[in-house]
Amino acid sequence: MTDFSSLPHLPDSLTDTAARSVQKTQTAKPGGLFSRPWFLRLLAIAIIIIVWQLVALTNIRVPNIAEVIRFLIIEISEGTHGGTFKGLFWSPIGNSFMRYAIGMAIGVPIGFALGILIGTSTYARGLLNDTTLVLLALPSVVWAFLSTLWFGLTSEGPILAVVLTAAPFVAVSVSAGVRNIDRSLIEMCASYRVPLLRRTQHLILGGTLPSAITGTRLAFMAGWNSLIIVEWFGATSGVGWRARTLYNFQDYPGFTTWILLFILLIMILDRFLLRPVERRAFRWNEPPMLTFAETDDDSNASTNNSGKRLRKRQD
Amino acid sequence: MSDLSIVTPDSVAQLSDREIRRSIRRRWVTRTSILLGWGAFIGIWYILSDIVFRDPRLPSLHLVLQRAGRIIATPGFGSDLGNSVLRLLGGFLLALVISSVLGLLIAYSDWWRNLLQGFLQLIVSIPTIGYAVLALVLFGISPIGPVLTTMLVSIPYITLNVAQGIAGVDRRLIVMSEAFGRTRKQIARDVLLPSSLLSLLSGARLAFAVAWRMELLSEIFASSQGVGFQIRSSFERYDTQAMLAWTVIFVALMLIFEHLVLRQIDRWASHWRSAEPSATR
Amino acid sequence: MATVLIENLTKVFPPTANQPNQVQALGGLNLSITGNVLVAVLGPSGCGKTTLLNIVAGVEQPTSGSVRSVQDGVPAHISYVFQEPRLLPWRTVVNNMIFVQDRKSDRSRREAEFYLSMVGLGDVADLYPSQLSGGMQQRVNIARAFLVNPDILLMDEPFSHLDALTGRSLRDYLQKIWSQTRKTALLVTHDVNEAVELADRIIMMRPGGVIFDDIPVNLPRPRHPSNPDLQFLQNDILRRFDSMEAAVRFGVG
Fold it and tell me: Could you tell me if B122 lies within 8 Å of chain A, comparing CB atoms?
C-alpha cells in the first residue's frame, strides 16, 4: 500500500531462502507489544509531546501543553483572556475555509482544463507548458505577497493566491497523467471504433484520474500554505491573521495554539478526505510516489510475497 | 552473430523518409508554439503592466530585470545571497547525513521502519509555513531556524529514497556475489553502495526543490539578512519591483542548480545506465 | 578429480498462505557424478531440478539426505552460471569479471580478457552490460563462471531466457569453452535438444523430484544439432518421457 511496506527485506546471507523468510515473518508476526505498529505510533506521539514539554521548560517563548489547552478552551468558548481581549475561534476558521473553498473551487478546474489541454495537444503543450512550470517554480510566498499588494486587505487577495498556487500543481500532474496513458489502449479504442464520448470518459478521464488526484492533493496542501501566508501578511480575518495578531501581542501560548490549529486542520482534511479518495483512485494501480500512509497489513503482504517466491523456487 | 536482426537498406530508407518529414514538422510546431507561449506570457505581462493597470504594483518586465541587474551590482548582494545559499546548503547537507542513517535503519529493521514512518508522515503533512513560524517561536530571529527547517523538510524525501535504494537492490546480484565468495565488505562497497547512491541522488533532487522554498520562507519570517529577508523588506516597503527582482534572481539560480547541476551529477553517476545497446554483432 | 555424491536427498517445502499443502520438491534422490563430464539433469518445469542445483551449491538446505562435493579429498570449489546474466550494471564487462576474482593482480585483467575472448567477446571488455545484447550478457555470465577455475560448474537453464537462434549459438560457445577446460559440470535444463547436444550423461527427472532414467551419451564432439544421431537420441528421450507419463497416469510408476 505504501512505499515503506513494499520495501523487501535484505537477505542476510545466501541461505536466506524462501523457506527461511517464511519462518521469519511467521515468528515476527505475533511479536511483542513493542513492535506493534499502533504502539510505535503512540510512542512517536509521546516522544513528540515529551520533547515539546522539555523545550517548554528551557525556552520561555515556548508554552507547555497545559497553557495551550487552557488558551484553546477560552478561544473555543469565546470567553475572555483577561480584560477586553476576547476569545475567537469559529470566525477565523470559517473565514479561512470559505476563502480556501472558493480558491480551490476555481483553481482545481482551471488546472484540470489546462492539464488536459497541455497533455492532449502539441500546440497547447508548447504554448502553456513552460509558463505553467514557471508558475509552479515560484514559491507560494511570492504569490501571497503579490496578491496582498494587489488587493490590499480584502478577501480577493487570499483567494487569488490559492488559485494561483493550486492551478499549476493540478495542471502539471494532469498533463503528465494524460501523456502517460498507454498508447496501445488508444490504438485499441481506435481499432474497435469506441465512440469519442465514451473514449474520453473511460480512457482520458479514467487514465488521468489517479495522477490528477495526487496533483490535487498536493495542490490542497500548497493552497492552504499560501492562504495562511497571505492572511498572515495581508488580511483582517482568518486563521493566519489570528496567529499574526497573537504573535504581535507576544502572546506565545495563543500563537502556538493557532500554529498547531492550522497544522491540525490541514492534516485532518488530508487524512479524512484527500487520502481516502486517493487510495480509492489508486486501487488498481501502483501507489503514488510519496504517500506516508498506514501499513497495518504489511506483515500479510510480505507473507504473500515469500509464498510466491517459494513457489517460484520449485520449478 | 548471435543476435540476428533483419534490416534491409530498402526498408530503412522507406521508413525514415516519411518519419523524418513528420518529425521535422512536429519539431517546428513545438518550437513555434514554445516561442509563441513565451511571447504571449511577456505580451500579456506588458499589456497588464503598461496598458491596463499602469501601476507600480505591477512593474514592466524590463524594469524588473533592470532592477535585478542593479541589485546584483550592489556590494551587499554577495553577502545576502551567500547567507541564503550557506544556510540552504548547511541544512541540506545535514539532511543528507541524517537521512542516510535513517534510510539504513528503515531498510534493515522493521521496528525502526514502523517508528520512523509516523515521524516522516508528520513531517510531510505539515505545511511549510508551519515550520517557518515554529522556527520563529523557537529561535526568534536567528540563522538556526532556516537551517533546521530546511533540514527537516528535506529528510523524508531523501530517507525514503535511500531506504528504497538499499532495499530495492537486486537480490540476485547479492546471491551472485555470495555464490562467487565475495566478502560482506565487497558486497557493501560494490553492490549495495552503487545501487543506493543513485536513488540517494534522485531523492536529493526531489528534496532540493522543497528545501530552497522552505529556506526562503524561513528567512522571510525569521531572518535579518539573506534573500528572503530582502524579499520581505521590499514587500513591506510596497516595492514590488525590488521584490520581483529578488525573486527572479533567486528562483533562476535555484532552478539552474536543480535542473543543470543536480541533473548533471545524476547523469554522471548513472553513466552506465544510459548507454545505448550497441548495434555491433 | 571432482566428485558429487548425492544420497537419499529429499526436500519438502512447508505449506504457505497461498499453498496450503506442503510440496515435495525432491523425493529421495541418489546420484553420483565423477570425473570430467558434463551431466544434464532433464525434466519438465516444477520437477525439482533447480532445487537440486541449489542444494548442491549450498544455497538451500536439504530436508534430509546428504550432498558431498569433493576435489582430491577436500571440499570442491563451485561456480555457477545463472539463468539470467546477473552482471553488476555499474561495472564494465571486464570489471565484472575481475569482481569475482580472489586475487587482484595485473594478471587478472589479462585472464578475464582471455575468457571473454573464448566466448567471442574480446572487443567489448570495456563496455557496460547495458550496452550488450541479452545473448552477449549471457556469454559474459558463462565466461565468468569459467574464470574462477572451479572444480565443479553448476548451470541453471542458462539459455532458457534467450531466443532459439541465440541460444543455439551460445551452446556452441559453451561446447567450445567446456571442451577446452573439461570441468565437472551439472547442467539443469528442460530442453531435450540442449541436453543431447551438450551432455555426456542425461539424468531424467519427473515431478516430485524423482529420477526415472539415466542414460549415457557417447557421441563425438563437437556436436552439431543437425547430426542425425542427436535427432535419434532426442526422439528416444522423448519416448522415455511419454512412457513415464503414461505409467504415472495409469498408476503403474
Answer: yes
C239 to chain B nearest CA, in Å?
32
Domain assignment present for residue B32? The answer is yes
Q: In what order do the strands lie in the sheet with C201-206?
A: C78-81, C152-156, C184-189, C38-42, C201-206, C210-216
DSSP chain A: --TTTTPPPPPSSTT--HHHHHHHHHHHTT--GGG-HHHHHHHHHHHHHHHHHHHHHH-TTS--HHHHHHHHHHHHHT-BSSTT-B---HHHHHHHHHHHHHHHHHHHHHHHHHHHHHHH-HHHHHHHHHHHHHHHHS-HHHHHHHHHHHH-SSSHHHHHHHHHHHHHHHHHHHHHHHHTS-HHHHHHHHHTT--HHHHIIIIIIHHHHHHHHHHHHHHHHHHHHHHHHHHHHH-SSSHHHHHHHHHHTT-HHHHHHHHHHHHHHHHHHIIIIIHHHHHHHTTTSPPPTT-----TTHHHHHHHHHHHHHHHHH-
Closest residue on chain B to C162 (Cα): B3
Average pLDDT over residues A251-278: 86
Phi and psi at residue A156, in whole multiples of 5°?
-65, -35
Whether the Cβ atoms of residue C174 and residue B11 lie closer than 8 Å to each other: no
Residues B20 and B78 in one domain: no
- CATH for B195: 1.10.3720.10
pLDDT at B247: 93
Q: Do B251 and A14 touch (CB under 8 A)?
A: no
Q: What is the pLDDT of residues B37-84, one digit of tens each?
A: 889 889 999 998 888 888 888 898 899 999 999 999 988 898 999 999
| Closest CA–CA distance from residue B41 to any residue of chain A (Å) | 7
Amino acid at A133: L
Domain boundaries, chain A: 93-286
Unique residue bearing C-alpha cell 493540478: A170
Q: Domain residues for B103?
A: 64-280
Answer yes or no: do B36 and B93 share one domain: no
Coil vs helix vs strand at C70: strand
Q: What is the pLDDT of residue B15?
A: 57
Say whether C131 and B175 touch across the interface (CB within 8 A): no
Structure-derived torsion over alpha carbons of residues B237, B243, B245, B250, reported in degrees to the nearest 10: 140
Which tens digits make up the pLDDT trace of A226-249?
A: 899 888 888 888 898 998 888 888
Q: Indicate the pTM of the whole model.
A: 0.75
Residues B198 and B234 placed together within one structural domain of the fold: yes
Cell of A24: 521469519
Contact B278 C165 (CB under 8 A): no
Cell of B151: 533540514
B160 touches chain A (CB under 8 A): yes
Between CA A252 and CA A259, with CA A256 as vertex, the angle to 5 degrees is 140
What are residue A187's phi and psi, to 5 degrees?
Answer: -65, -40
Residue B57 lies in a domain: no
∠ CA C29-C32-C37, nearest 5°, is 130
Superfamily of domain A93-286: MetI-like (1.10.3720.10)
> Cβ contact (<8 Å) for A292 and B121?
yes
